[in-house]
Amino acid sequence: MEYYHVVFTLPAPISAIAWYNKRVIYGLLFDIAAETLRTIAADPKHLGADIGATLVLHTWGSALTHHPHVHGIVPGGGLSADGARWIACRRGFFLPVRVLSRLFRRRFLEALTDAHQRGRLQFFGEYTQLADRAAFAKWLAPLRASEWFVYAKRPFAGPEAVLAYLSRYTHRVAISNQRLLAFDERGVTFRWKDYREKGRTRYKAMTLDTGEFMRRFLLHVLPVGFHRIRHYGLLANPVRRANLRKIRTLLGVPPELRPTPHDTVIVDRPTFICRHCGAPMLVIDILPRTVPIRAPP
Hints:
The protein has seven helices and twelve strands. By secondary structure, it is an alpha+beta fold. The protein has two domains: 3-172 and 223-251, no CATH class; 175-218, no CATH class. The chain has a five-stranded antiparallel sheet, with helices on both faces. It has a three-stranded antiparallel sheet with strand order 7-8-9. Strands 4-5 form a two-stranded antiparallel sheet. 21% of the residues are buried. The mean pLDDT is 86. It comes from Caballeronia grimmiae.
């Protein structure tokens, strides 16, 4: 089975008001992107199937700028309306990007307008006037005519490639320690990638004042309890297990084998490989966790 990589990105004007409306706007980004995929996929003119998707939120660019978008991992097909057969998409092609973009734009702006009318958005600084309904509607008008960025990338090489991708992106923070180059009286210096360049010249160093560096980093701190990985459609948590069993049956895939409590599981002694020299490292002892001190002595 093929797996496709799709990306839904918010336009810059909406990104500008998103960082102090994170829970509302990021939530809409998730839900409208999933709704768009499922609506177009269910249309008989395109695929005519109920699909599933796993979406992952990213809010940063390489230079720590605010760039909210969701990456989607989508199987190349879905179940028919009656659930009796598997409908695969054309090889190498998932869904038309232009159609996805237009529906995503319309549905997101409708949902954003509704959130504004319900008083769920807040505005500060230069955007304070957008609290007025007429001003907000006028501000949204140009966004209805502009192109929104929706991208569908080529299929992954297989399930292993999907897992490799998710392992790289699901638990990242805005910047890793490996990109930090220096911290001195000038500020913080870090490595970033300029996507407008090609080859080795795209990797550059940037130095920001400490306050500006912290401001950019904190732009990407999510609200407490906000889930940045979400599953929709056939892969939604309440129905995923039953759907996967049905899909495996329709595709003739052997059922997933899970050990029962009565099975004897032999666990080999764990071996780790040193990332510097490549030699195996053997665990010779495991120290038990100590009991925390609950009160001063």
